[in-house]
Amino acid sequence: MQESHLFEYAVIRVVPRVEREEFINVGVVLYCAKQKFLKALISLDESRLAVFKADLDCDVLKANLIAFERICAGEKDSGPIGQLDAASRFRWLTATRSTVVQASKVHPGFCKDPMETLNKLHNQLVLF
Question: Is the Cα dihedral 108, 118, 3, 93 positive or negative?
Fold first, then answer.
């Protein structure tokens, strides 16, 4: 029988007009310390985003979302934050901020397979 592990996740949101507090879910980031797992799955639907704010620079937004993924992965070109340990990277990525790319509050749970859980959350909260 496979053991369950505590995990934490947050929904990655794009908030095109921060002052209106409207957002579109574009991804999920999941951290499981026991499994040494930190990964983000991102899916940007540009046509949905255009409904909120047609003049948003999607190239800049995509670059920011790619940076988010690189920091999760701890890639060498992800800057000083990307070189921190996984727990610190997760906390930095999910810290409250008022920018176009934001994370929801962190939610806990238990899982047997973090990648399977990340895919399930991504399907439920982003792709639905």
Answer: negative
- Nearest Cα to 20, choosing from 100, 119, 94, 103? 100
pTM of the model: 0.91
Q: Identify the pLDDT of residue 1.
A: 61
- What burial letters (b/e) apply to 39-49, b meaning 16+ CB within 10 Å? bbbbebeeeeb
How far is it, in rounded angstroms, from Cα 89 to Cα 108?
17
State the CB neighbour count (10 A cutoff) for residue 70.
17
Question: Rounded to whole angstroms, how far apart are CA atoms 42 and 22?
Answer: 18
- Gap between the Cα atoms of 40 and 32, Å rounded: 12
pLDDT in tens, 17-37: 888 888 999 999 999 999 999
From its phi and psi, is residue 51 left (phi > 0), alpha (psi between -120 and 50) or beta? alpha
Please report, as a single letter, which amino acid is at residue 9.
Answer: Y
Work out the burial of residue 94: count CB atoms within 10 Å of its CB; fewer than 13 is exposed, 13-18 middle, 19 or more buried: buried
